[in-house]
Amino acid sequence: MPDHDKLRQALRELEPASRGDLVAQWRRLYRTEPPRYASINFMRHAIGYVLQERALGGLPDSMRRELLALAKGTRSVPTQGQVRIKPGTKLLREWGGKTYEVLATDKGFVWDGKTYRSLSGIAFAITGAKWSGQRFFGLKQRGGRDEPA
């Protein structure tokens, strides 16, 4: 039986497995006791992940490092569709006949000597209107409307 077929079968067998069966599989795969209040559904998913990881390969080292940084709180999670801006990047925007320059740092965005947590805060400070900061600075395509959000 090819590895993919074995994996599919092993994953199918998790669905009707009893709590005792899942605890035994957890101990075998993780070499530890499951969390004290782990639900059957949680154990099925966690065991299924390990089975897939062993059969198909795990995450690349770069992704593991990024996930660890997220877990430690040393890196923020971009929202869906958000552009990741590296520290040191300068953003320029002309508005009302004046050019505005913003510097991305590891702590946020600096404009006019003040650090902002988001580009939207700067866009509001400049225009007085609620804009998507990424849209205001031209990092994101319009959602169909030309005016601020």
- Poorly predicted sequence stretches spanning 5 or more consecutive residues: none
- Strands of the biggest beta sheet: in what spatial order? 1-2-3-4
Mean pLDDT: 86
Query: Count of helices?
Result: 6
Radius of gyration: 24 Å
Largest β-sheet summary? 4 strands, antiparallel
Protein structure class: alpha+beta
> What global shape is seen?
elongated
Report the β-strand fraction as a percent range. Answer: 5-15%
Distance between the termini: 56 Å
Tally of individual domains? 2
How many DSSP-defined strands?
Answer: 4
DSSP helix fraction: 40-55%
SSE sequence, one letter per element: HHHHEEEEHH
Task: Please explain how this structure is put together.
By secondary structure, the protein is an alpha+beta fold. It has six helices and four strands. The protein has two domains: 56 residues; 72 residues, no CATH class. It has a four-stranded antiparallel sheet, with helices on one face. β2 and β3 form a beta hairpin. The protein is elongated. The mean pLDDT is 86.
Give a topology summary.
Blueprint (H helix, E strand, L loop, with lengths): L2 H12 L4 H12 L9 H17 L4 H12 L17 E6 L2 E8 L2 E4 L2 E3 L2 H9 L5 H4 L13
Antiparallel strand pairs: 1-2, 2-3, 3-4
Helix pairs in contact: 1-3, 2-3
